[in-house]
Amino acid sequence: MEIGTRHDDVAAYVLGVLGREDAEGFEQHLARCGQCQLELDEFRSFTPLLRDPSARAALSMSARQPVCKVTRSILYVAAGFVVAIAAVLSVVQSLAGGPGEPVEVSSVDQAGGIGYQQASLFEHV
After folding, report:
1. Fewer beta carbons under 10 A from the terminal one: N or C of the chain?
2. What's the average model confidence in pLDDT over 52-59?
3. 116 has which bridge partners?
4. Position 37 in a domain
5. Within a domain: residue 106?
6. Close Cβ partners of 35 (under 8 Å, ≥ 6 residues apart)
7. Is residue 63 part of a domain?
8. Residue range of the domain that includes 44
9. Residue 10 and residue 17: Cα distance in Å, rounded?
10. Distance CA 94, CA 122 (A)
11. Total domains present in the chain
């Protein structure tokens, strides 16, 4: 390992993930580097939090997941019902409406005059 990167190994050393040679090299560096000694003390205060998550937090996370899955399933079913009801109402309304109210349609003829023709919404013009 390069000498310049020893400063970056404090956290890895505290967590015990350095190999034996790297750990020995870091310990030699640590004996001469006050900055790394201070960082080592800071990281050691966090080591218990990083290595051993509390059983309560793990239980809390595992208990929460099924609730989220159930809630998500209920939302999907509800959304499906809303879409189905909207589709049924749309079809019923279009079938029950009959031919519809007459609509005025105007167009310009080739000669430049304006004419109009009344047509039902569902009739072909």
Report:
1. C
2. 56
3. 106
4. yes
5. no
6. 7
7. no
8. 3-51
9. 10
10. 11
11. 1
